[in-house]
Amino acid sequence: MAPTKDTLFRSADMSLTQLYIANEIGREVVSALGELGVMDFRDLNSETTAFQRTFTREIRRLDNVERQLRYFHGQMEKASIPIRSIYDFNNPFTSPSASEIDELADKSQSLENRISSLNESYETLKRREVELTEWRWVLREAGGFFDRARGQTEEIRHSLDNDDAPLLRDVEQHGQGEPAGEQSFSVMNIGFVAGVIPRERIAAFERILWRTLRGNLYMNQSEIPEPIINPENNEEISKNVFIIFAHGKEIIAKIRKISESLGADLYSVDENSELRRDQIREVNTRLSDLASVLRNTKSTLDAELTAISRSLAAWMVIIKKEKGTYETLNKFSYDHQRKTLIAEAWAPTNYLGLIKSTLQDVNDRAGLSVPTIVNQIKTTRTPPTYFKTNRFTLAFQTIIDAYGTIKYREVNPALPTIVTFPFLFAVMFGDFGHGMILFLAALAMIYYERKLQRSKLDELFSMIFYGRYIVFMMGIFSMYTGLVYCDAFSKPIPIFNSMWTWNEGDKGSLGPGASRLDGYTYPFGLDWKWHSTDNDLLFSNSYKMKLSILLGWCHMTFSLMWSLVNARYFHTPIDIWGNFVPGMIFFQSIFGYLSFSIVYKWSVDWAAIGRQPPSLLNMLIYMFLRPGTLEDPEQPLFKGQATIQVILLLLAVICIPILLFLKPFYLRYEHNKARAMGYRGIGENTRVSALDDDDDEGQTLNGGRESFGDDDDGIAMITQDIGHGEEHEEFEFSEIMIHQVIHTIEFCLNCVSHTASYLRLWALSLAHQRLSIVLWDMTMANAFAFTGIGGAIIMVVVFYFWFSLTVFVLCVMEGTSAMLHSLRLHWVEAMSKHFMGDGVPFQPFSFKILLEEDPVE
Amino acid sequence: MGNSWLPFVVLLVVVLFSFGVWFLAPKGENQTVWRSTLILSAVAMYLMWAITFLAQMHPLISPIRYDLRPE
């Protein structure tokens, strides 16, 4: 076994392992493996429903505890009590024992009862308080009505009382008068109803009353200035006090019914002002009593919640882990006779030692004599694809995984992507200044990594933060390409002596033409003298176009080479001879030749030999349309050009039928040969099963194995739960042929279209450069025209304007578009050359992942 | 002062650098990442530079100032 160490180049070597765990320590074993987080357990009970599984009861109990914890959390949020952050615990990741879990469950049950009873009484008290408050308002307002009503008919009543109700004081201000000649309303056979009603219903209420009583009523109402708070949902409602006078008992009863049905609360008000004052006094005392009781209840509740808040996060983590453990245990099959749990899991082979020692530890701690047995199983199943990533590689791996899951042990495109993705981005984004902004931003994110990871970020920023190392690489490469393009915020960077000197003009001025320093080529990047010349676009377009073609050719050749590596690794020589070699020859004889011509044309000093350089575009067109002839036969690119082009073209054409037919016919030949020798496809049903028939006494292959432990020679063959698409595929020639035809057409056409696709490098870098020049010219260049104090102020304002536009338009927007284009170049242009990608993702049972997916704050 | 030999010298530097990285990359599980990233970066940066250099080695046009036009 002992494979080479796992790298990012290929997915980790996986083994299907079988665990025999004593029933007593099942929970401890799984929880220890959850801490390790390297085992992907297979569901061995997929045909049983969730309710029939062994540990459903435990999960239900934990669900209940979780619900209680969430309830506490909700109560804390309502009372705005902060929860102690999960990061403040020294070690929240210790796995608790079963008894601790029981304790926790009991504790949370009793706490829930206590909290909910406290809450209930608090709410009851609150409701009582609201009622009393409303009553007080009714008493005050209704009192005002009474007084006003009486004031119209009778003399003004005198009040000796010193009540502090404002309306009554109002009455007092009206002046002196003899004690009221109490002509009661009842004497006049007028009854009344008083209460409060939500303000939005008042119009409907009035209308209904008017219609049902035909106007036989006198209604008075006034708004309560402060909103009433509903204790059930903490909503504020504005209400009105009303008082309705009407004739007769029936009418009054009718009014009562109507108002109650409209959600009004009715309160009794005495028409006698003395009694009313007593009522107010009584209500006031009761309110103040209630307030003190409420305060006490609230503080008890808060104290209780604060106590819980200190450990709530840890409890949540514990319960989540425990639930995960039981959910995993539910995937195990249970051997009733031997009282063991049997589990099957994929694990990286390199971790088997660690797994075994962990299991040994658990065993020792439990003091069990029966060891936990780890068996390796041989299988025809596709193992899951697993890459061990770190902070740096994670984001790059995610880019590739977003396209498709990599086939097990296939070359991982993520490894070269670490460089090529940010580099192709930088070719489009090349500007030293903008690259510096990206670099510094990424550096800041990396520096404050820990802090940012713990804080809640909004969606967009968390996405950028996730890709911080990509941005970091992008920044570095953008600075480099910016230097090569000689652009810093669209300004030139004169590092070396220019290779051009301006010609002396007629009037002693320099230019407009320039002549070259003899034999000297600008050593790094584009010559800065090209900046702001009349024909810099002419030059840089030609340069950037060829740069894109050359880089594209390199990138595609590089990617195509991986298909060779894959074919060699998977021992499929037919893929080398039937796909890789003809494909490579086809690609190189056209586009390799084009790349060669570009470089060759550059390396020849056309002026020195006194010839016109031929156009490469026309050369390529003539190569296809009129093989053997050149556009200008007198002036070839090099000697024998026409002959070489014919040979290359023939090579390319020959490769097409090879690409088309070699692989399918070879496969058919192989298949027929195997058939002729009497071989048939291996059926999975010939295997012996340890899991499907546990009670079968005759079944000893695995039963016997147990005592021997995990010797590698005696590997037990286990039936996979067949019928999951693992069946041996029937050989179907037509299918393979069609597949190969599609592949050939795609490949040949893609060679052309993908090369053209790399021209986006040119287009985007041109657009980026032009945009930054325009931005500079429109803002900063104008600001330099002003001088003095005014100029300084304008400069500052314009600078901010320019800088924010640079960041948001040039860095963020342009950066996003360049990134998407680079992404496409990887997914389509590069990965189509070698990526197989029909892998199964590795989903280990890991507490860490569990908590990341469903974080406890 | 011809300097058209520069691409070859730099190529040599890149090759030496790549060998250096191959042997000096930090050991451990990230060795592959170190090697591949540094070597590929060097190669990509070299390519970009060399292409730019070659494009200017025998230029077919020369810059013309836009602020001065011939009368």
UniProtKB/TrEMBL annotation, chain A:
Belongs to the V-ATPase 116 kDa subunit family. Essential component of the vacuolar proton pump (V-ATPase), a multimeric enzyme that catalyzes the translocation of protons across the membranes. Required for assembly and activity of the V-ATPase. Residues 101-128 form a coiled coil. The chain crosses the membrane at residues 423-448, 460-480, 547-565, 577-596, 642-662, 780-801. GO terms for molecular function: ATPase binding; proton-transporting ATPase activity, rotational mechanism. It is found in: Membrane. GO terms for cellular component: fungal-type vacuole membrane; vacuolar proton-transporting V-type ATPase, V0 domain. It comes from Clohesyomyces aquaticus. The keyword Coiled coil applies. It is a multi-pass membrane protein. The lineage of its organism: Eukaryota, Fungi, Dikarya, Ascomycota, Pezizomycotina. Pfam families: V_ATPase_I. InterPro entries: V-ATPase_116kDa_su, V-type_ATPase_116kDa_su_euka. Signal peptide: none annotated. This is V-type proton ATPase subunit a. Keywords: Coiled coil, Hydrogen ion transport, Ion transport, Membrane, Transmembrane, Transmembrane helix, Transport. One of its GO terms (biological process) is vacuolar acidification.
UniProtKB/TrEMBL annotation, chain B:
The keyword NADP does not apply. Its main location: membrane. It is a multi-pass membrane protein. This is ATPase, V0 complex, subunit E1/e2. One of its GO terms (biological process) is vacuolar acidification. PANTHER family: V-TYPE PROTON ATPASE SUBUNIT, VACUOLAR ATP SYNTHASE SUBUNIT H. InterPro entries: ATPase_V0-cplx_e1/e2_su. One of its GO terms (cellular component) is vacuolar proton-transporting V-type ATPase, V0 domain. The keyword Membrane applies. Belongs to the V-ATPase e1/e2 subunit family. The chain crosses the membrane at residues 6-25, 37-61. It comes from Clohesyomyces aquaticus. It comes from the Eukaryota. GO terms for molecular function: proton-transporting ATPase activity, rotational mechanism. Keywords: Hydrogen ion transport, Ion transport, Membrane, Transmembrane, Transmembrane helix, Transport. It is found in: Endomembrane system.
